[in-house]
Amino acid sequence: MKIDRYEKIFMLLGVGILAMGLIAIAISVLHYGLHVPSPDGRIAPGDVRATSPWDEPGVYETGDGEYEVIMLAETWRFVPDEVRVPAGSEVTFRMTSPDVVHGVLIEKTAVNVMIIPGQIATVTHTFDEPGEHLFVCHEYCGTGHHLMSGRVVVE
Ligand SMILES: [Cu+2]
Prior knowledge:
5-stranded mixed β-sheet
C-alpha cells in the first residue's frame, strides 16, 4: 500500500501531538500529583431525598457566624433557592443531586462545583460584604436548565 508523503507527515504529526498530550497527563499525575476531586461521601441517587440531612434541605446555623446549607440540585431547581446569612458568615454548602448531573456557580465567589448524582460536594465560602450573589446551574441538565438559579443574600 502506497501512502502519500504528505499523508505520512500528517499521521506522524497526529501521533506526535497525541503522545505529547499523554506525556503531559503522565507528568501532571506522577510528578505534580494532580487528581480529580474525591467525593465527600456517596448516597444511592434514588435514596437522596429520604436520607438525612438531604430529606430536610435548608440553611442551618452550626456555630457563631457559621452556617451549613444542605442543598439539593434537582431538575430543574435548587432547594433551597434562597440562602440568607449575615455578613461575615462562613457558609459550608453540602450539595448533591438525586437525578442528573448539575453544577453550581455562585457569582463573585470561587464557588464552582459539579453536582454529581449521589456524590456529596462540600465547599465553604466566607461572605464578608452585604449584598446578593446569584447562583446558577452551569452544567446543561435538560430542557429546564435555564430555570435553575437562586441567590445568596448577605444581610
Ligand atoms: Cu443545569
